# Entry
Amino acid sequence: MATAADLLSAAARRWPEAPALWRDGSHLTYGELDRRVDQVAAWLADACPLRGSRIGVWLDKRVDTVVALFAAMRAGHVALPLNPAVRASQALASLADAQAALLLSDYGRLQALTAADHARPWRGVDVDDAAWQREVHSLAGCPPPIRRDSQELAILFYTSGSSGAPKGVMVTHANLLAGAAAMNACLGHRPDDRLLAALPLSFDAGFSQLTTAFAAGASVALVDHLFPADLLVALDRYAITGILAVPPLYLQLQQAIEAAHRADLAGAPGSASLRYFANTGGQLPAANWQWLQAVWPHAAPHALYGLTEAFRASALPPHEFERKPESVGVALPGGTRLHLLRQDGSFCASGEAGELVQQGPLVARGYWNDPARSAERFRPGPDGEPAVWSGDTLRCDDEGYLWFIGRKDGQIKTSGYRVSPTEVESVAAAAGWPECVATGLPDRWLGEVITLAVASDDISGLANALRSGLPTWMHPRHIEVWPGALPRTANGKFDRVLIRQQLLTRLATTATDHASDGND
# Structure
């Protein structure tokens, strides 16, 4: 296969009547999905004749979203999925950076973009518009492009950068195909599997639920959940066999299960059908792995680790959980090579902490339209071959298993998302609080919680400004008023290390005082 869209066409030939997507209790077969993708691809090929155009898709998690993304790739273009939870300003930033030619969205989102920016170079299309749907459905299909190269760009995943500006990770068709093969080798997907799409499709791990399912002939349940209970209902409604989620979502599921099934956890949703549950985007504590295994005793646990720049890097096999419950495992199958290197580029000894460097077929091409940052992160590995330097610090034990320690840069890893402090600080500054520093403080479930230190006597209105200007996962958990000016280094920059240390001390003292008050 040359492209990720070929996964779908191959599945449609092999399993035309098998369910591919589930939504709202009904399903779409592989044959039906393939035909719909063909029709939209034909329309896109005509609307955007320049091959490789970036096609934005900003929709809730629904069948139209999947159709649009795969149609863009089938038409020879580059898919640009936007998280449905981002604000209009952030969507505009990604569309502008990608130089998108077209955006497939809905009426409400298109109106929000028009209100935020009248001078838009891309064309917006409302996929719910009846006239557009009639035009698309009248098309017979899309002929295959003349040249199909697996090294062409397939999709751009936008992720936070250390400077605050979003980065478009350039993922090729070969990357997507290799990722699907690696996940299927790791998780053993079968045609009778039903996967729960719990993560956003704009997240590389969330999108992989589609590619891995299509490669194996499995089906995917698309669930836009407002509450954890929605996912619990979906587990039994669709007889889900596999779920991939991030630690905060597992916390919410655990709390919902405990609240609804205190008397009989053995009958919790998913216990009859689930055969595996996998975690990514952060470390899940050993106690919670054990709790989930008790609730889903027939389901195998899988711990995955990786970064958007190279999909996933490693996985902990289920049989090792009892011995190494907090390890991130070993390199994924299919040619992934992992190295731990010292600052001078030499190899770390067993047990020594170093930067993880990944090589192999999952390494993306670089950052879109950003050669400087690409050269910094994507550079040759120890053998001179292409590699991605993760910025993550890990160690390796005597048996070759990896253990995550932390990040080298100042990015905050929360709820499975990477957040640049600058992204939070810029919104606060625009609202009138320029003297501020955002940092991440340890949290058992979220990995880190965003905390904002502000040098101001009056922060009334700041929380509202942050809520209106940032998506939910970027909202600071704590806003701390700083007496006087924020400390600075010798070169005049904010002393982020000292600020973080003092915030840790301050919040720890506050927690101790509250505990003491409760015991009086």
Observations:
- The first helix runs from residue 5 to 14.
